[in-house]
């Protein structure tokens, strides 16, 4: 009887400890704009733990990770989540500063979108297929078609990933340096051997030949070592300071037609490559839908994140609406910067402010 009561007491204490929740956690977010990144704040009077996660539930009941906060500290944390127009609720998962479970829920209140902009957003689609091989951009630009066909052309042409030969060159340099080092060190002459029967004995080394050979070896070794160190340093720099994330933009892409280069820039934390479709920009003012309806131009964007590098969220501040090929993940770094994760490449249609 005593043993049963003791087991019951231990179980009750363990259950109470596991079920203890940090009190007062909340998600602060105003009206949510569809097809946009929405910013808010997570607050807890008991402090925030090292990692916080926000999940979103949509109309179909699907639950997906939308935000991750790394190295959270203090009593509040700013966040951003992408709303694809179907998001209904946010759920907080994490721990407070004392290691207790931290949870909260927030039901979204959605802003209304004007009819003209909603009509345009419904036309924007993506291609999940591709042309057979790369499609080299030509002088004619983009063949007119629907949004899905234009997306396919751009992904296979303007936004196609180009092979980088820098890693291969670094590896080739390393192999060459290793060969140069190994060659002189492994090359040896006959030592203590006897000549075959009936053959003349090998000529004796002239005086000083051994010293000359060692001097040549010593002269080659620093060069080979220098090449090896240079190749190794190149590999280290390549891994540490690899290619930056890229933001690729074709302004007015929805109308198709000729496309002209609009320049490229190296900005804070990423590189931007931009093209311009003049027909799309002009028709954006008149109304792509025809009939004189004034609809804004739609740009096509590509977010390329090589080897885990992520694009800063601030790079997309110029767009009021964004429609992504896949729902992006927002990651808050320890320094507070918000970056867009979700994969090595994301495509998006964007309508500027």
Walk me through what this model shows.
With 353 residues, the protein is α+β, with helices and mostly antiparallel strands. It has helices at residues 2-19, 115-123, 147-156, 166-186, 209-240, 278-286; strands at residues 26-28, 36-43, 51-58, 63-70, 76-83, 87-95, 101-107, 246-251, 260-267, 270-276, 298-304, 311-312, 319-324, 329-332, 338-341, 345-352. The chain has a seven-stranded mixed beta sheet with strand order 7-6-3-4-14-15-12, with no helix packed on it. The protein has a six-stranded mixed beta sheet with strand order 9-10-8-11-16-13. Helix 4 runs antiparallel to helix 5 (209-240). It is flat. The model is unreliable at 5-19 and 288-292 (pLDDT under 50).
The count of helical stretches stands at 6
Helix content: 25-40%
Mean pLDDT across residues: 77
Q: In order across it, which strands form the biggest sheet?
A: 7-6-3-4-14-15-12
Oligomer: single chain
Biggest β-sheet strands, sense, barrel: 7 strands, mixed
End-to-end CA span: 73 Å
Outline the low-pLDDT stretches.
5-19, 288-292
Approximate shape? flat
Would you count the extended β strands for me?
Answer: 16
What is the string of SSEs from the N terminus onward? HEEEEEEEHHHHEEEHEEEEEE
Question: What structural class is derived from the secondary structure elements?
Answer: alpha+beta
How large a portion of the residues is in β-strands, by DSSP E? 25-35%
Radius of gyration: 32 Å
Provide key terms for this protein:
single chain
């Amino acid at each position: 009887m005593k043993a049963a009561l003791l087991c019951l007491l231990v179980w009750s204490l363990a259950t109470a400890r596991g079920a203890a929740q940090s009190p007062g956690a909340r998600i602060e977010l105003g009206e949510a704009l569809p097809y946009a990144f929405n910013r808010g704040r997570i607050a807890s009077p008991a402090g925030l733990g090292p990692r916080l996660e926000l999940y979103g539930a949509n109309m179909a009941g699907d639950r997906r990770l939308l935000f991750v906060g790394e190295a959270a500290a203090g009593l509040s944390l700013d966040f951003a989540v992408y709303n694809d127009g179907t998001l209904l609720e946010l759920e907080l998962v994490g721990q407070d500063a004392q290691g207790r479970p931290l949870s909260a829920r927030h039901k979204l209140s959605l802003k209304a979108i004007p009819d003209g902009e909603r009509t345009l957003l419904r036309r924007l689609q993506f291609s999940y297929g591709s042309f057979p091989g790369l499609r080299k951009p030509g002088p004619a630009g983009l063949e007119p078609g629907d949004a899905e066909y234009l997306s396919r052309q751009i992904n296979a042409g303007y936004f196609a990933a180009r092979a980088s030969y820098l890693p291969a060159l670094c590896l080739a340099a390393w192999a060459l340096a290793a060969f140069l080092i190994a060659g002189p060190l492994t090359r040896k002459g006959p030592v203590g051997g006897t000549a075959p029967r009936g053959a003349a004995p090998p000529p004796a080394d002239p005086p000083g030949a051994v010293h000359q050979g060692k001097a040549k070896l010593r002269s080659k070794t620093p060069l080979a070592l220098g090449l090896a160190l240079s190749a190794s340093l190149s590999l280290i720099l390549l891994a540490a300071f690899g290619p930056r994330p890229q933001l690729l933009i074709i302004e007015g892409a929805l109308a198709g037609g000729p496309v002209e280069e609009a320049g490229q820039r190296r900005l804070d934390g990423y590189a931007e490559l931009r093209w311009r479709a003049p027909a799309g920009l002009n028709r954006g003012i008149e109304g792509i839908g025809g009939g004189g309806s004034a609809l804004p131009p739609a740009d096509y964007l590509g977010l390329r994140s090589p080897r885990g590098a992520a694009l800063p969220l601030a790079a997309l501040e110029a767009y009021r609406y964004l429609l992504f090929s896949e729902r992006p993940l927002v990651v808050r770094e320890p320094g507070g910067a918000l970056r867009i994760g979700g994969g090595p490449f994301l495509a998006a249609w964007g309508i500027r402010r």
